[in-house]
Write a structure and sequence with these properties.
Organism: Lysobacter soli
Shape: elongated
Number of strands: 0
Structural class: mainly alpha
Protein name: Uroporphyrin-III methyltransferase
Keywords: Membrane, Transmembrane, Transmembrane helix
Largest sheet: none
InterPro entries: HemX
Strand content: under 5%
Radius of gyration: 58 Å
Number of domains: 3
Order of helices and strands: HHHHHHHHHH
Low-confidence stretches: 227-232
Number of helices: 10
Distance between the termini: 171 Å
Length: 324
């Protein structure tokens, strides 16, 4: 008979279950604590990443602000550089003007250069140059004469005997200008205007009338057919005469425009064409010959001034000042 199996005491089994329960509880507590720590660590990592991103954005914003400030400073430096260049140029210009003023003052203060005399000579040269321009450009004889008078008054105030011959030359030039009378261009245009007024006085050639004893067929067709010589050039019908008078007036206007700009060739060609229109208005007669002779006389006028002594005083003055 076999011996009986040993039995575990109940108290020992309960302690084993309690130990396992404790181990499980500790494992659960450890897992919960580990999970909590892992969650906290992840939260800290996210906060750190968010903080790092915010810091990075702040750093980028500061960098952009620094770049804007740098560009603004660069623009200010460029503006300051441009302002400095302008100021430097102005300072140089002021220095140059100051040196010119000093030279002018020194020349005026120099007793050997006669400052008052130099001013008078400058004024005389200006007046002579003005007189020459008034004659050559504007054809203003009266203005040129007044300028010559003023230049003579200025030269009379110079006591230097070296300029005695200059006053004599000015008197000769003034005498030549006074002898011109009327400016040639003005005279030619005035004569053209007077000639244009005589166009309306052109006689109208009467149309031929049939005798009372002419055949009936000539009297019947006289109002329809007008028989004239083939070499006839005088306009008889009113429309033809109006056209001829308009052509003559047009050529006279072209001649006047050519005279305004002192175009001698254009002036004479326009009057030659006007002479051709005159044969359409005047029949061959002494009156036509007289009008054509008058028109040719106008065409032979000079439109420019011919004065040999013009500008001689100004040239002599400049030579004397250059030699002095």
């Amino acid at each position: 008979m076999s011996p009986p199996a040993p039995t575990t005491p109940p108290a020992r089994r309960s302690r084993g279950w309690i130990a396992w329960l404790i181990v499980v509880v500790l494992a659960v507590i450890a897992g919960a604590w580990g999970w909590t720590q892992w969650q906290a660590r992840n939260e800290r990592d996210r906060e750190q990443q968010l903080d790092a991103g915010q810091r990075l954005d702040a750093v980028e914003g500061r960098i952009d602000s620094i770049r804007r400030d740098q560009r603004s400073q660069l623009q200010r430096l460029q503006q300051a550089d441009a302002t400095n260049r302008v100021l430097r140029d102005e300072v140089l210009g002021i220095g140059q003007r100051s040196s010119l003023i000093e030279d002018t003052v020194s020349k005026l203060a120099d007793p050997n250069r006669h400052g008052e005399q130099a001013l008078r000579l400058d004024e005389a040269e200006l007046l002579l140059n003005m007189a020459q321009q008034r004659l050559l450009i504007a054809g203003d004889l009266e203005g040129a004469r007044r300028a010559y008078v003023l230049a003579g008054n200025v030269l009379d105030g110079i006591d230097d005997p070296a300029y005695l011959s200059l006053r004599q030359t000015l008197q000769q030039e003034r005498a030549g200008v006074d002898a011109l009378g009327v400016e040639p261009r003005v005279r030619a245009m005035a004569e053209l205007d007077a000639f244009a007024q005589t166009i309306s006085t052109a006689p109208v050639e009467a149309q031929s009338t049939l005798p009372s004893d002419a055949p009936w067929w000539r009297r019947a067709f006289a109002t329809l057919i007008d028989v004239q010589p083939s070499d006839r050039t005088v306009a008889v019908q009113p429309p033809d005469r109006i056209a001829a008078a308009s052509g003559l007036q047009l050529e006279i206007s072209l001649a006047r425009a050519a005279a305004e700009r002192r175009d001698d060739a254009g002036f004479r060609k326009a009057l030659q064409r006007a002479e051709g229109w005159m044969t359409r208005l005047w029949p061959p007669s002494p009156m036509l010959d007289q009008q054509r002779a008058k028109l040719r006389e106008i065409a032979g006028r000079e439109l420019s001034l011919t004065l040999p002594t013009l500008g001689s005083t100004l040239q002599q003055l400049r030579q004397l000042r250059a030699a002095g």
